[in-house]
Amino acid sequence: MTLLVQQLVLGLLIGGVYVAVGIGFSLVWGVLNIVNLAHGGLVIIGAYLTWLLFSAFKIDPFLSIPIVAAALFGIGYVLQRLLINRVIRAPIFFTLLLTFGVNLVIINVLLLLFKSDFRSVTPSYSGSGLSLGGVQLPYIRVAGLAVALLLAGAVALFLARSRVGGAIQAVGADRDAAQLVGVNLRHVYALTFGIGAACAGVAGGLISTAQAITPSAGEPYTLQAFVVVILGGLGRVSATVVGGLLFGVVETLAQTMVPGLGAGWANAIAFAILVVVLAVRPRGLMGRPV
Fold this sequence. Notes:
By secondary structure, the chain is mainly α. It has a single domain (2-116, 133-280), classed as ABC transporter involved in vitamin B12 uptake, BtuC, CATH 1.10.3470. The chain contains eleven helices and two strands. The protein has a two-stranded antiparallel sheet. The longest helix is centred in the N-terminal third of the chain and has 31 residues, at 2-32. The mean pLDDT is 89.
């Protein structure tokens, strides 16, 4: 029984990373109607920026999150304004090709800068944790879950209560009607992509504290973000939170309870979940009918 509880708790803690990864992906997909294949590349940029700040300036990875988020927001804003905005109304095939190409550029630039060596962020409390009733709670994972939930709450509050958030939701609902009432589509698109990139940067920072990183380490997170959004449902931050936490639990239990499954089966598990959800409930657990 204790083992099961431990795995459930670990799944929820790991799910915090998936929540952070999924929020930005869901926002960009829901508003810009772009499946951003460069999302994993943006995640790993955030991881490397966290590593640079830690190794060069000894800044705690959780304290560097605002810096990383701001840097990724700038990268995302410029990337959308100068490049992706040119194909924003093109068929989805073109946006898939473009974002796939951007992802390849990101990976190769990181390879030129950092080579393929493994890097890791190891603050003094790495490997430490607390025990509650025989259940181990690693400090890194607990803090990561807390940051992910705070990020989700901040994004939801921003979208619901701010004027810019209202404009973003209006564009997501009907871009032509939003433009008729004076919304600057190009600016809102760039802001949305920038916010999505900032969320990816936060996720990258969390990932760098929990595992070693390489330039290509972000690629699986694009798939996992896709699964999280499909599982929870596109259109609400709360749905992404549910999807991320549930995905973390299912992945952890599958790897633990099924003989022969290990970390190498993570993508296979993700695909299996994706297929089942699309077959049974295509709009996700909390998705709104169109």
